[in-house]
Amino acid sequence: MTAGDLVVWALLCIFGGILPARTAQYFLAPAKGRVRRAVPCLVFGAALSMPTWMGDGNPLYYFPFLLAAFVVGYGGRLAARLVVGVIFFEWVIAWGMIVDTRAVLPASADYWGAILWKLAMWAAVYALARRLFRDSKTITLSGRLWGLLGLLALSPLLSELAFSMWNIRAYTPEGADVVLDAAFYTLLPFVFVSSLALLLAVVLLSRHQALEQEHQLADLREVYYQGIRREQEQVRRLRHDMRNHLTALSGLLEQGGTGRAADYVRSLQAASGPSGAGRWCENDTVNIVLCAKAHELEQAGLEADFQVSLPSALPVRDVDLCALFGNALDNALEAARQAAEKRVAVRARADKGLLMLRVSNAYTGVRTAQNGIFGTTKADRQAHGFGLRGMREIAARYGGTLEASAENGRFELIVCIPLA
Predict the structure, then answer these.
(1) pTM above 0.85, yes or no
(2) How confident is the model over 152-185, as pLDDT tens digits?
(3) What is the largest CA-CA distance in the chain?
(4) Per CATH, is 275-418 categorized as 3.30.565.10?
(5) pLDDT, tens digit, for every residue of 189-224?
(6) How far apart, in Å, do the first and last CA atoms of the chain sit?
(7) Where are the domains positioned within the chain?
(8) What does the H/E/C string look like for 172-210?
């Protein structure tokens, strides 16, 4: 091989390694650091020039290196990295065996022609992944679903590796080559198509799970909002009846019935809705949520530091406002309850075309984020942990953003929503 051939070979391996590595990034978040991100590219590049004949041991030796590359080069659940690594191994090696074992494709008998056929298929799969993820949705699956996909991936994996594990060529009479080749070329396309079908199943299951979570979040927001709305209506009725109550109290006091007047005041306090009612801002929905949460913070022994300036009308649905402020304060209360600093700070205002909400509080323990979302600290993760995801979905629906950070024992949540 001349120096020019070496340069061409190196460029093809680099480009070929980038294609499947970038394809995998649609399914898994890339790891932090250039060195870790480069590992999958190098391992895939090696597969491009590696011969993968039927019965050859190379796929067996290559398999652990590819799994290690997915563990090192990508983030997320370990189960997700292993399952996606297995599926990528299946379609990459299956196509390589189809091309290398028999020169059934034009120019595939030539070494460079075989590499080009591999590159063509890798580019086609990359284009397919781009089309599937044109809406920029990320893959979010539960551990159970990843386990199920892993079990489904075992059948094509073992079928593919069986030829190498048993060194099947060494024990096959030469006269049986035709039958063996027929079985081989019946099996390999099945493995290749099955692996692509598994990748499609990952996407569809993720979208189905996201849709279920959106419905669940919508139901939770509606229930929460209806509760707040009932309290709001109760407060409005009390305001409307206040004149009559004051008239009755005045009459009792004029008649000297101070005891009866005191009883009347106590009955009003018991029916006055959320205690600690005040006027935090002009927006009725946000005000009712803040009043209710201020009372909950007080009951938990926490200080409510609220500075909110919002107009009575906002281009955000009341149910969404309720979910934003309610979930933010619920999370802050839960975290600050265990912290040394017993204070929850809320800053919100509508200014310069933006609705801005910032909630900060202290916390204890360790907070880790996956895809920018901090998970619940409660034991039942299936029933909890929807708050931040629901808030991010609301912000995105209005063209806004949500950022959360947890550093040095302090958690901060910032939501920005354009008001245009």
Answers:
(1) no
(2) 999 888 888 877 776 655 555 554 455 556 666 7
(3) 118
(4) yes
(5) 888 889 999 988 888 888 887 777 666 666 656 666
(6) 64
(7) 3-215, 275-418
(8) CCHHHHHHHHHHHHHHHHHHHHHHHHHHHHHHHHHHHHH
